């Protein structure tokens, strides 16, 4: 990912604009997305946690405040990593590329790994198995990813061609089938509600499939 000039330029420009939510459409979407991912992770207290594509560090800070220890945040934009180190002392922020196996090998085993709104920049089928290797026994890999069949996502993919990635349930199931030591995997859909006064998304039940064409998929892969 870091070698992709497009994404490097894109996120460098977004960083300079100063929005707290970076790639989200607004802060309400970010808040609900992070809350749903924390819910997916189960127990945080006392567990080592890794936030891949940590952005401005909000999720990493939440993990720390919930008792995650240690908490590591990784991002490929060096300016963000430096900003996060200054804002959130006590969290181990590292500049690195989730596509780089050598870099991933430097990370310790973790109990909770998060890939939240970062897989559109990456090939999930390649990156998630590598992250899985860093997950300890009993751990969880939590993801939030654009849902490929969603019309909004399709339009973005058409505009950005092969730079923007998305996932469908069949693709998630295929990845799950390759994960050694998997005990189960689950998915739920996030769909923008007509009434967004309280929260932007409506969520479906957990299962191995979703109904309709939600905007996002929340995935959790559970390790034995």
Describe the structure.
This is Class I SAM-dependent methyltransferase. It holds the Pfam family Methyltransf_25. This protein has 224 residues and is an alpha/beta fold. The chain is built from eight helices and eight strands; from the N terminus they run ααβαβαβαβαβααβββ. It has helices at 5-17, 27-41, 58-65, 78-87, 101-104, 124-133, 151-160, 169-177, and strands at residues 49-52, 71-75, 92-95, 110-116, 135-146, 182-192, 201-203, 216-223. The longest helix has 15 residues, at 27-41. The protein starts with a helix and ends with a strand. 38% of the residues are buried.
On the 0-100 scale, what is the average pLDDT?
92
Unreliable spans: none
Number of continuous helical runs: 8
Shape assignment: globular
Backbone CA Rg:
16 Å
Structural class: alpha/beta
Strand order of the largest sheet: 3-2-1-4-5-8-6-7
Q: What is the percent of helical residues?
A: 25-40%
The proportion of residues in beta strands is: 15-25%
Please trace the helix and strand order, writing H or E for each element. HHEHEHEHEHEHHEEE
Q: Find the count of extended strands (DSSP E, 2+ residues).
A: 8
Major beta sheet summary: 8 strands, mixed
What is the CA-CA span between the terminal residues? Answer: 30 Å
Write the layout of secondary structure elements.
Elements: H1 5-17, H2 27-41, E1 49-52, H3 58-65, E2 71-75, H4 78-87, E3 92-95, H5 101-104, E4 110-116, H6 124-133, E5 135-146, H7 151-160, H8 169-177, E6 182-192, E7 201-203, E8 216-223
Parallel strand pairs: 1-2, 1-4, 2-3, 4-5
Antiparallel strand pairs: 5-8, 6-7, 6-8
């Amino acid at each position: 990912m870091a070698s992709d000039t497009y994404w490097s330029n894109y996120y460098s420009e977004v960083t300079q604009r100063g929005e707290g939510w970076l790639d989200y459409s607004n802060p309400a979407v970010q808040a609900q997305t992070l809350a749903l991912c924390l819910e997916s992770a189960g127990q945080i207290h006392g567990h080592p946690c890794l936030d891949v594509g940590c952005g401005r560090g909000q999720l990493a800070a939440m993990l720390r405040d919930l008792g995650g220890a240690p908490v590591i945040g990784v991002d490929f934009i060096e300016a963000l990593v430096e900003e996060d180190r200054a804002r959130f002392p006590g969290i181990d922020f590292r500049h690195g590329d989730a596509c780089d196996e050598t870099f991933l090998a430097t990370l310790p085993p973790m109990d909770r790994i998060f890939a939240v709104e970062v897989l559109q920049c990456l090939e999930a089928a390649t990156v998630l198995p590598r992250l899985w290797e860093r997950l300890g026994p009993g751990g969880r890999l939590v993801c939030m990813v654009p849902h490929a069949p969603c019309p909004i996502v399709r339009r973005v993919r058409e505009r950005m061609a092969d730079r923007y990635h998305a996932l469908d349930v069949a693709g998630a199931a295929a990845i799950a089938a390759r994960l050694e030591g998997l005990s189960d995997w689950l998915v739920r859909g996030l769909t923008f509600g007509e009434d967004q006064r309280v929260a932007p998304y409506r969520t479906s039940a957990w299962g191995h499939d979703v109904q309709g064409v939600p905007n996002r998929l929340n995935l959790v892969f559970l390790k034995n």
